[in-house]
Specification:
With 440 residues, the chain is an alpha/beta fold. Among the domains are: 93 residues, no CATH class; 100 residues, Sandwich (Immunoglobulin-like), CATH 2.60.40.60. 15% of the residues lie in helices and 33% in strands. Keywords: Calcium, Secreted.
Length: 440
């Protein structure tokens, strides 16, 4: 999404980076020996000082040749030798060369004492650092994301039936807001600045319906505009468009909103839709929006189409079809035999594969993964596991993995047990034989 600064933002375009000193990093840890100091000081230098984007950018301008290559690859050590110039830490590389970090540590030194036997020792060190140049250009946020609360999503499963109208619970938290920002470590505040009055932001970043307020069938289309402001005062504005299905069990086709806007208050970004099907056999379609859409199927057998963004799809009750589209999507089928489907073009690239997550895949409920419209003639599939979760790695054209599907609720061993498979390769075969995996 586009990033733009208003004239008031430009007045605050520079900010001083927030530095974490060594004493702040220590917290409640006591410096009572040389070993404790060496361990903690090295950790602070490695994680805080060298992890500062400003320090990284500065080192990129100071190092060259083999040293620069080694730094980028992480092939260096942080040394605390007090005999270095001005007593500052320095870096050593595999070729025995070194680089002094003196310019980062130009202030006065602090010290601590410890006793070993009858001898009292004193160690001097720099408690703080500064990035050469001091001030850096602050950049505004570039996106606002709403991550839906699972309890809220589950409250909509089967909402409404033949005799009662579909609606959300009243006064409920929909989810958590976060901002995408090019400045690593930036913090943000959020405010609703325009639109429907049913909403409020609580606990700093949770979007909530006010007490007694609901979203219900027949509400049609309505919006709210949210401001994200970073610690330097730069802002970004985004419109969230809500769409609710018609009254009763009418089969609705609810399209998304075409993306537009530049992120300013005068022209906020539009394209992030939150669509509720409620009752009826609905088709919820983002219309290939580049926004991050959120779709709730509701009670019957619904079809949900994501778009180009990183979407969240919740099928609800019934046998739903969920098509995430491009981007990295989160897919919840809900109760019933659901089909998770991928189309040609939904995959990423070999350099940057698309990564989609199925949160509740169930053989028992009859869930299916449909890849027939995604795969080329030389496609290859392989199950693996990372961080305790099963992953299906897909080479759609046989030239490298360009699509990953993570099974968030199952390890590889659990999937193999469910399908009585002997190994990862056999799991593909067993899922094909059972009809839970479709490739043609």
């Amino acid at each position: 999404m586009a990033n733009a600064c208003s004239s008031s933002n430009q007045d605050q375009a520079l900010r001083v980076r927030t530095m974490i000193s060594f004493f702040q990093y220590l917290g409640d840890t006591n410096l009572d020996s040389q070993n404790v100091f060496s361990k903690e000081y090295t950790a602070w230098l490695s994680s805080v000082v060298l992890g500062d984007p400003g320090v990284t950018a500065w080192l990129e301008t100071q190092l060259e040749g083999d040293q620069l290559d080694a730094f980028r690859e992480g092939n260096y050590k942080v040394e605390l030798n007090q005999n270095s110039i001005d007593g500052a830490p320095y870096l050593t590389f595999g070729d025995s060369s070194s680089f002094e970090l003196t310019e980062l540590f130009s202030g006065e030194k602090d010290s601590f004492e410890w006793t070993k036997g009858k001898i009292t020792h004193e160690r001097w060190f720099f408690d703080s650092y500064s990035v050469p140049g001091g001030e850096v250009e602050n950049r505004a946020p570039t996106d606002i994301r709403l991550d839906i609360d699972l309890e809220f999503a589950q409250s909509l499963n089967g909402s409404g039936n033949a005799t009662t109208g579909g609606q959300t619970p009243s006064g409920v938290v929909l989810g958590t807001l976060s901002a995408i920002d090019p400045d690593e470590g930036d913090t943000h505040t959020f405010e609703i600045v325009a639109g429907d009055g049913r909403f409020e932001i609580v606990n700093g970043n949770q979007l909530k319906l006010k007490e007694g307020e609901v979203i219900k069938e027949g509400d049609g289309t309505f919006t709210i505009t949210i401001e994200a402001k970073d610690e330097g005062g730069l802002t970004y504005y985004e419109v969230f468009t809500f769409k609710a299905g018609a009254l009763g069990n009418t089969a609705d086709t609810i399209p998304g909103t075409e993306a537009s806007g530049d992120g300013t208050l005068e022209n906020p970004v539009v394209g992030d839709d939150i669509i509720f099907g409620f009752r009826g056999t609905d088709t919820l379609n983002s219309d290939d929006s580049s926004g991050d859409v959120i779709l709730f199927g509701g009670h019957h057998n619904d079809t949900l189409y994501g778009g180009e963004g990183n979407d969240q799809l919740f099928g609800g009750n019934g046998g739903d079809t969920l098509i995430g589209g491009q981007g990295d999507d989160i897919l919840w089928g809900g109760e019933g035999a659901d089909t998770f489907k991928w189309m040609l073009g939904d995959q990423g690239s070999v350099d940057t594969p698309a990564v989609d997550r199925i949160m509740d895949f169930s053989k028992t409920e009859g869930d299916k993964i449909d890849l027939k419209d995604l795969l080329g003639g030389d496609a290859e599939l392989l199950f693996t596991e990372e961080d305790g979760k099963a992953e299906l790695h897909i080479e759609t054209q046989g030239s490298g993995v360009d699509q990953k599907i993570i099974f968030d609720n199952a390890s590889l061993a659990e999937l193999q047990l469910a399908f009585e498979a002997t190994d990862a390769a056999d799991l593909v075969t067993k899922m094909l034989d059972s009809g839970n995996l479709i490739i043609e």
